[in-house]
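Shift notes (night). Ran PH domain-containing protein while the centrifuge was going.
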Amino acid sequence: MLKKLASDALGLSDIGRIISPSDYDKVDADDFIMHEDEEKIFFLIKSRTDEYCFTNLALIHVDGTAAVSKKRLVKRYDYYKNDIKHVMIETAGTVDLDCELKFTMGNVDFSIDVNRNQLEQLKDIYKALIKIAHIVEENNILLEKSQQTLNLAAQACGSQRFETGDLSQVFANVNEYSFNWIYKARETYIQKDFTDVFKNYINN
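Came back to this:
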């Protein structure tokens, strides 16, 4: 504990700080944002070695601890590809200088220390991550139900008898219908942009 306090006092710890939107253009993560596709930073935590950049499309982790020497390793986790689970905040104790945001994206566990004085701001990203997790989970259920419905329809069609001359046209029609069904379902139930969620919870 004494070593930790001394390290924090000397500014040598890895406690992160929530960066103001006016300084987003000064961080390394900004260079990896897909501005051309209207990607936007909504929340950013910066520590001595790492940056955790939450955009409307993904979490971008500029990892300084996993890289060799002073190099940085940039990792991108798109929300729609990586389920968010186990979102938690651990508040600071009496002598702690930091609070902690914990969550899992895909199969990667994150534990981010943040200055205890920024707990109220940290609650905003906590709420946003919880909401995104709920939306993605519900959409995955609806997408699966849509696929099950298509399978039942295909089985029903398979039990019907058709004249030999009609088989090629029937196959073409079924194939086109199935493709359009799947395409529409994916367009409806796979959400990639969570701008509205961040605008609702993050006060930039």
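The chain has one domain: 1-204. Residues 1-12 have pLDDT under 50 and may be disordered.
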